[in-house]
Amino acid sequence: MELVLATRNPHKTREFRQLLGSTFEIEDLSANPDIVMPEETGSTFQENAICKAVCVSGLKQGFVVADDSGLEVDGLSGAPGIYSARYAGTNASDKANVEKLLRELRNVPDRSARFRCVIAIALSGKALATVEGVAEGTIVLQPRGNNGFGYDPVFQPTGSAKTFAEMEAGSKN
Amino acid sequence: MELVLATRNPHKTREFRQLLGSTFEIEDLSANPDIVMPEETGSTFQENAICKAVCVSGLKQGFVVADDSGLEVDGLSGAPGIYSARYAGTNASDKANVEKLLRELRNVPDRSARFRCVIAIALSGKALATVEGVAEGTIVLQPRGNNGFGYDPVFQPTGSAKTFAEMEAGSKN
Known about the structure:
The structure is a homodimer. Chain A has a 6-stranded mixed sheet. Chain A contains 4 helices and 6 strands. Chain A has helices spanning about 10-20, 45-55, 95-105, 170; strands at about 1-5, 25, 65-75, 110-125, 125-140, 155. In chain A, helix 1 (about 10-20) links the parallel strand 1 (about 1-5) and strand 2 (about 25). Chains A and B meet through strand 5 of A and strand 5 of B.
């Protein structure tokens, strides 16, 4: 079966192919430069994921999958949250976002955090289902590891001695 | 790797084995009659799932998985929700719960509903992660199909002509 992934982020396409590539044929929007992704105007990860999946599924045949994810840091009242990708500004690099996070946490004792990811599935402009995953963890003092992307080098899940960026793709997934 | 499933419901053990049996060795609590499952006193599926996983993981080695799930019907303001398994009373049968649901909906025009399932993972008394799945759908007028359990015979997911109980296990999962 074919799944259309409503993203222009090649990292996300790669992660989805690793996870679901044996069950689904996964296509992203790279062959459709004409499709404009909607602005992420929702107030939750779930609203953003549903909005992207529903919008793109009105333009593409078949099942469309979209995700929205980010980091919620307890000592920063849940920031960066839905603004994770643009924490240091529009089109900020992963490096700039991570640096801002470590700066904001410099004098904050509580570094507990969770990584939240919502995936929405739509067909013909209708939301069918959502899946939400939450991993509990902590923000380490310095980036470690070269795998993954985003905040992976500073997020260490509970029960692990490695950051997401120090793990093989299989362990992180 | 071994996963302990914090449940005494053989239907749930079977579903988890179908889903994850190729990756994990799945054990439930049938060999541990001494472990008393905590009361489901949370106000959300998530609280109940975390409570069960954390509590049992304080008594069993290794990763412990627990779930809580139910049906939210829009025309009934989200009922039966976290009370899905005991909608018609403590230890009510699936049949009694389904009959009560159809009775309550008799004069309700809006039969849209969602099936929500939260899975929590814990290790040594600490919550590590949760996964939440939501399937949108509608409550049909009469039960159809013999597979699955719970409200499966009356829940028809959006985009499908079959109820959960008319689907093969693979499609439902």
